[in-house]
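Page header: ASSEMBLY MODEL / two components / 582 residues total.
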Amino acid sequence: MITQIVTTAMAGTRRAARQPGALVAVAGFYLVVTLALSAMWRAVTESRGGEIAGYDATSITWYIIVSELAFSVVPQRLIEYTGDDVVNRRIVPELIRPARPVVIRLAHEVGMVLPRLAACAVVGVVFGFAVVGPPPSWSGLTLAIPALLLGAAGSIAAQHAFAAASFWFHETRSAWFLYQKLVFILGGLLIPIDVLPGPLRSVAAALPFAAFAYAPSRLAAGRIDPGWFVVQLGWLVALTIAAVVAFDRGTARLVREGS
Amino acid sequence: MEGTSPVIVADGLQRAFTVGRGQRKETIEAVRHLDLEVRAGERLAFIGPNGAGKSTSIKMLTGILHPTGGHALVLGLVPWHERRTLSRRIGTLFGQRSLLWSELAAVETYRMLGAIYGLGHAHVTRRLDELGELLDAASLFHQPVRTLSLGQRMRCELAACLLHEPSLVFLDEPTIGLDLLAKQRFRELLVTLNTELGTTVFLTSHDVADIEYVADRAVIVNDGRVIRDASVAALRAELLTNKRVRVGLAGVDPAVVAAALTGPGRATTPTSTGIDLAVDTDVCTIETALTAVFAAAPGAVVDVAIDDAPLEDVIASIYRSPT
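Prediction written out in full:
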C-alpha cells in the first residue's frame, strides 16, 4: 500500500506542477489576501499599543503569511468536489480497482499540495522580508514547513471524512458552506485563536481546524511548542481513519443498495 | 467457443431498486432474471435500449452492485463479495469516463495505475512496450493527454484498461464521440486484442456498427431480461429475410398509398418522395409486395429499389418484440 500511496502522491505532485497557470493564480490570490489581511492586523496591533494577544506587528505578519499559506495550498472546496463525485457516482469506476478510492484520493491531493506550497511559500517569504523583515524565530519558520504539511494533510483528510456524508445524504451543500466558515473562523485563518474570547478559544482549540492553520502559523510567529505537532499528528491519524471508515461504509452501502 | 471455460456465469440474476418514500414508495425491477454464460475468448455485445438493465447487469458483474436475487460467477469469483480480487483480473473502460489525467503524459498515469495494481516498474515497462505495439500507440504514451485527439486518447485509455493484463474486459460505449475513422480503428483494435491476446470482450454499445464489426455474439436485453441470445452471424442471416423496398411515387399522395398497403409481412412508411416497405420475405414475397404497390398506385411508380434491412432495424424489431 505504501507504493500505491507514494506513487499516487508523486503523480499528484507532477499533475499540479504541470498546471503553471493554476499555480500563478493560487500564488497571486495568496499574495493579495496576505497583503490585505496582514495590513489590517498590523493596523489593529498598532491601535492596541503595538501588541495584541502577545503578537507584535512582525509576529502577526508572519502568522498571517503562514495561515494564508495553509489556506491557499489546500482547495477549500475539495469537500464540495468530493461530495459531488459521490452524489453523481463519478466515484463508482474507482471501486473497480484493488485499492480503497479514498486512500488514492487522499494521496493524490496531498501530492498536489507540494507545488502549491513551494510557489506560495516563495511569495510569502519574500513578502514577509519586504514588509516586516526576518521572522521572529528562524527555527519557528523552519518548523512551520512540516507543520504546514501536517496541517494540509489533516485538512484534506477532514474534507474527505465530512464529504462522505454524501453517501447517505444528497443535499449537503449547505453543510459544506458551514464547514468552510468554521474552518475560517475557528481554524485561526482570519483571526489568531489567541485573540478569540475565552470560551470560543477553548472550543477552537478543541476542534481539528486549529491543527490545519493555527499550529503552523504560531510557529512562524515564534511560538514554538512541540506539543502542537502531537496535536496535528493525532488529528491527522484520527481524520484519516474517519475518512477511510466513512468511505468504506459509504461504498459498502452504495454497492449494497445502488443509490 | 465450445470447449472453452466460462468466464461469466449468471444464473437468474435480479436487481430491484426501491424508490420514493412512504405512500409513493415503489419497487423497480431493473434486472428481472438474467441468465448468461460467456466463454473465454468470446467477443460479446450486450445490447438493449435505454433502461433495459444493461448498466445494472454490468455493475453486478463487475462487483459494484449487489443483486437482490440470483447468483453469478465472474472468472470463478462472486463479484460483489470479491470485488478487489476480481478487479485485478478484469479491465473496464467507460467511454465517457477517463482513466487518464489530461495534464500528464499517459505513461505517468500508467505508472500510478501500475502501482495501484501492484505491478513493478519493470513489469509496467514491459507491458507498455507490448501495448504500444499492439495498439500502435507507443509514441502517444509520452504526450500530454490533453494534446491527443479523442481517437488517440481512447487508444491510450484502452492501454490503461489493459495494463494489468486482464483476461476479461468490459467496454461501455467505447466509441462514443469518435469520428468514423477513429471508430473503425478502435473496433479493429478490439478484435486484435481478442485474437492476439485471447482477451474476452464484453461490449455494450448503441452503435450497431460496433456490434457488427467487433462482436461474434449478441445478447439483447430488454425489460431486465435476455430477449435474444444469438451469434451476430445469425442476426445477419435475418437480414436475408428482411428487405427494404423503397418506392418512388409521382402524382399521388404517399400517405394514401401507404394506408392501402397494409398486409401480413410488410410495414409501410410514407416518405417525402414515395413509400418505404419493410418486407419479411418468410411471410410476404417481394413479388406479392410489389404487385400490391402497383395495384395501389397504378401509373404512379417512378422508381423501385430493394435493399437488405440494416442490422439496426433487425435489432430495433427485436427490442420492440414482446418480452
